[in-house]
Structures are given as structure tokens and as C-alpha cells.
Specification:
By secondary structure, this protein is of the alpha+beta class. The chain is built from 7 helices and 15 strands. Bound molecules: uracil.
Length: 241
Amino acid sequence: MRINKYIAHAGVASRRKAEELIKAGLVTINGTVVRELATTVKAGDKVEVEGTPIYNEEKVYYLLYKPKGVISSVSDDKGRKTVLDLLPQVKERIYPVGRLDWDTSGVLILTNDGDFTDKMIHPRNEIDKVYLARVKGIATKENLRPLTRGVVIDGKKTKPARYHIIKVEPDKNRSVVELTIHEGRNHQVKKMFESCGLLVDKLSRTQFGTLDLTGLRPGEARRLNKKEISQLYNAAMTKSK
Ligand code: URA
């Protein structure tokens, strides 16, 4: 198996990230640094990434209803609660597929499958990520229309998104809007609304591809079954060109 695929399979990093690690000279096979992406790993080879041995393990997939107030990392140097603290003892080295902000709740997948992760997060595969946002101000078709064509955030235009105004509460000067996007840029939803003059004050991801939060309470997690995993794969395959 090629070295970048081996690293992705081991759940250490996505395939693209693995390529970066290799090019940076951080990967060794049997003690020798490898920089060639075409290098293959044979049975019995000892692969290390930044000096840590890696092993291929069974692929596992969890769905977590992330509550507010936890960070989407596997560890935190400030000792804050992470999403891993919410999962039962998992022996595999899982990590979140993309991130949700500290104050965002909702659907978060965790896995040790780097290829799966790449497929889920690449915008080309057009996996729907559906968010429910409560915003300060009155949402109208006029102020939200730019979202359907794309808005510039951090100097780059977002891909066209879909929105649906769920409710407008003029007395409280706030609105609830559902937004569907295919990307996962930093604070993307908050920034998209901000570009329309609306400040997000509550955010939840209600859907990720074919998955939603049915049956889970905030902080609860469950294993995904084979059917759910293949439905996610299929969703990515049908859209990818
Ligand atoms: N967009 C955001 O702004 N925050 C999230 O947590 C997810 C998407």
C-alpha cells in the first residue's frame, strides 16, 4: 500500500495531510525518512510519523450530538473539555470530521478513517451540511439572497448555498434561518450571515449528509452502522465528478 494511503488508513491524517507530512520529511519507514509519495509499505514495515509508530486499525465511525461548550479537538493544551471526553472508551484513535465551534452544537462524526474524512469534507462531493441559525435582526429574502450566489469571506467566495427562513420574530428582533452549505471553512456560517448584516447568536448543525440527530440528546454518541456509512459514501460518490 502507498505510504500516504497507509497513513490515512491508520487514521493519523487525511490523505492530503499525509502527503504534506511525507514531503516535510516527518515520515520514516524502518528508520529511514521517505519523501517519495510513491513509496509503498510492505507487511512488517515499521512506519513512524514524527517519531510515533503507527498501526492500521479497524475503521470505526461515531455520530456525536455535540453540545455547546466543548471543543472539536482530540486534546486541548488548556485542559478544556473536548469531544473525545464525551465518547465511551474508544480504543481506536478517532478524530472529528471537520469542526464545530465551541459554541455550536449538533451533528459531528468522529472516525479513524482518513479517506472517508476526505470524502466527507471535500466541497466537490457536495455533502449537505445543514445548519439552523438564530440570528439577531430581521431576515428577509433581500438580505439573504447573496448567500445563494456566494459571498466573499476571508477574501474567498463561498460556494452557492441554500437558505430557508424558518421564523421571524419582530418583537424580539431576531430570526431563525436554515442554511445548507457544502464547505467547512472556519466560522463559515457565522461569517456568511455576518456578510448579510445578521449576527448569529445560536447555531446548530442539524444534518450532515444523510445523518441527523434523531434519537440522540446533546452529549450522546452512537456507532454508525454499515448502512449509514455506505449511504454517506454514496452521497459523496453521486456528486463527485
Ligand atoms: N459555521 C460556523 O460558523 N460555525 C460552526 O461551528 C460551523 C459552521
